[in-house]
Specification:
The protein is about 20% helix and about 35% strand. It is an alpha+beta fold. It folds into 3 domains: about 130 residues, Jelly Rolls; about 100 residues, Immunoglobulin-like (Sandwich); about 280 residues, Alpha-Beta Barrel (TIM Barrel), CATH 3.20.20.80. The chain has a 9-stranded parallel beta sheet with strand order 26-25-24-23-22-30-29-28-27. Strands 3-2-4-9-6-7 form a 6-stranded antiparallel beta sheet, with no helix packed on it. A hairpin with a 2-residue loop joins strand 13 and strand 14. It is globular and about 75 Å long. The structure holds alpha-D-galactopyranuronic acid (ADA).
């Protein structure tokens, strides 16, 4: 399944899921690997770090051009069509697509060289407190494409004198050498926009900006996540040749002083940090397990989610749209020191990730915050310049959502004047046995002096570790009892402090971490064990403590 709803009824599209041939680089032995999937699930590749080649034969039934889309290859993919190199992409967490023109009907072959190795070529995937898996880890789709097709649609809802309106931007791409004359019809319920003839230059793109008033639609909210399908059809001489269906919601998110407002109403965000990681399947989580995660989090009473520390699978964002879960989605970065940020590939790899995240995820009403650079070098001037550049890039792509970044540079961060919301990670009671309230009061007082005055504040991470099944009456660290105690102490303070507009518990589930980089010294089992469920989603004692407290606000 590519998305939780069909995006086409005219464009012929299919998912290339199933079993692909696979072999490790330099190896002849052939394996059969699931796509989507991580090679780590195979006993021969459970800790494999390097390159692997996936291949699949295709039967194409008609002559024409094709569009291949990969929702995620971890962490670098080079795509070959009948031996010709047609695409390169870095970063496991954002999609990319490519066009193959004038394909003759018959048998063809796709090969994908996948690389999950570390080194200077990879500024964002490096040994870290989560695992960089290997594989074609998210869905792949193949579509027969018309010479001029709908490349992208952005739907920006807003209220005008109490009536819902939207700016609808439709980007068309013409892959032929000749100018194309087309027209569009875009329908949402009974509201229809029709265009006159649009000229798209040969081998060029055109973006059409339309406006529409939608008098009688319902707002999207946490309590009533009302979604609508925006169905756009492209015509050539009145013949429908392409289409794109987007699923949208009418909602606005604003910052008003120190409050975050959804549709003009103040909200308090309460949720988890969730890594895309599940036992056996790694980061290639199938829909049924995504639904399980969502059901468990909602059972504990969440209304929000932070996609730590990278853009998420669109199917999970679709689930958030359907369930009314408010999302902080962030670009890919965790805990990078200045020397890491000085990697010559860092700026471009961040820029690509931000652009692909926003261009592809813009229409999800559940996403209300864009985040960047979790716990990176925000205490340095050079680091500040990179934060500034990335916030500016986000605003240039989307000025409808507030920005933030989770800092751990307590008392030294010099970037708090830049984002719309200030967020901090604090592990009172775990890394330091310090009183939660005093530490929190000090942090908030500093934030206000250091550029955060008058802004909403979010506690983006707090929590403690526990080994699933380890019970101990002494309530010592690493026991489930102590994890529950620490989380309870933190919840009591953060949920009763008017300075705080949101909390994200670290973390939803235990996740695998890399052995390299000495993470094994502080991560028992080579896992980050701060989940309130383990990697098999078995609940720890903290589960019911959280369920009790989240129901109070
Ligand atoms: C940091 C980081 C998380 C995780 C956490 C921990 O706040 O943002 O990714 O590493 O610490 O478990 O210590």
């Amino acid at each position: 399944m590519i998305r939780l709803f069909d995006q086409h009824t005219i464009r012929k599209i299919k998912e290339l899921e199933g079993v692909w041939d696979f072999h490790g680089e330099g190896e002849d032995k052939l394996y059969k690997m699931p796509v989507p999937g991580c090679w780590e699930q195979h006993p021969q590749f459970n800790t494999y770090r390097g390159k692997g080649i996936y291949s699949k034969k295709l039967q194409i039934s008609e002559n024409g051009s094709l569009r291949l889309e990969f929702k995620g290859i971890s962490h670098t993919g080079d795509v070959y069509f009948d031996g010709e190199h047609i695409a390169h992409h870095y970063n496991a967490f954002t999609p990319f697509s490519t066009i193959v023109k004038d394909v003759k009907k018959g048998e063809h072959e796709i090969k994908v060289l996948v690389d999950n190795s570390f080194g200077e070529h990879s500024a964002l995937h490096l040994p870290n407190d989560y695992y960089t898996y290997g594989g074609i880890t998210r869905p792949v789709s193949l579509a027969a494409i018309s010479d001029t097709y709908i490349k992208n649609i952005r739907f920006k809802p807003y209220l005008k004198e109490g009536i819902w309106n939207a700016d609808v931007e439709i980007t068309l791409h013409n892959i032929s050498a000749d100018i194309a004359r087309v027209s569009l019809r875009s329908k949402l319920e009974a509201y229809e926009i029709k265009t006159d003839t649009i000229e798209v230059p040969g081998e060029g793109e055109v973006t059409v900006s339309l406006k529409q008033e939608y008098q009688a639609v319902e707002a999207w909210s946490n309590e009533n996540p009302r979604l609508y399908e925006l169905n756009t059809i492209l015509y050539i001489e009145d013949e429908p040749v392409d289409d794109l269906i987007e699923r949208v919601g009418f909602r606005t998110v604003e910052i008003e002083g120190t409050k975050i407002k959804l549709n003009g109403k103040e909200i308090f965000l309460k949720g988890f940090n969730r890594h895309e990681d599940y036992a056996v399947v790694g980061c290639a989580i199938p829909l049924q397990l995504m639904i399980q995660d969502m059901d468990i989090m909602q059972d504990m009473g969440v209304n929000a989610l932070r996609t730590c520390h990278y853009p998420n699978d669109e199917r999970f964002l679709d689930l958030c749209d359907e369930r009314g879960i408010l999302v902080w989605e962030e670009n890919h970065a965790r805990g990078l020191l200045l020397k890491d940020m000085q990697n010559p590939n860092f700026d471009k790899q961040c820029e690509d990730c931000i652009r692909e995240m926003i261009v592809n995820h813009y229409n999800h009403p559940s996403i209300i915050i864009w985040g960047i650079l979790n716990e990176c070098a925000s205490e340095t001037e050079e680091g500040r310049e990179k934060y500034k550049m990335q916030y500016e890039q986000i605003k240039s792509l989307d000025n409808s959502r507030p920005t933030t970044s989770a800092t751990c540079r307590h008392l030294t961060d010099i970037t708090l004047d830049l984002p719309d919301i200030v967020s901090f990670n604090m592990y009172s009671g775990w890394y330091k046995d310090v009183p939660v309230k005093d530490t929190n009061d000090k942090e908030i007082a500093w934030i206000k002096e250091a550029g955060g005055e008058g802004k909403p504040i979010i506690v983006s991470e707090f929590g403690a570790a526990a080994i699933y099944g380890y019970r101990d009456r002494s309530r010592c660290k690493w026991s489930e009892e102590r994890q529950a105690d620490i989380i309870e102490e933190n919840l009591k303070v953060y949920m009763n402090d008017d300075n705080i507009s949101g909390i994200f518990i670290w973390q939803f589930a235990d996740c695998r971490v890399t052995e390299e980089g000495e993470w094994f010294t502080t991560r028992a089992r080579c896992h980050n064990n701060k989940g309130v469920v383990d990697e098999y989603r078995r609940p720890k004692i903290a589960y019911d403590v959280i369920k009790k407290y989240l129901s109070l606000k």
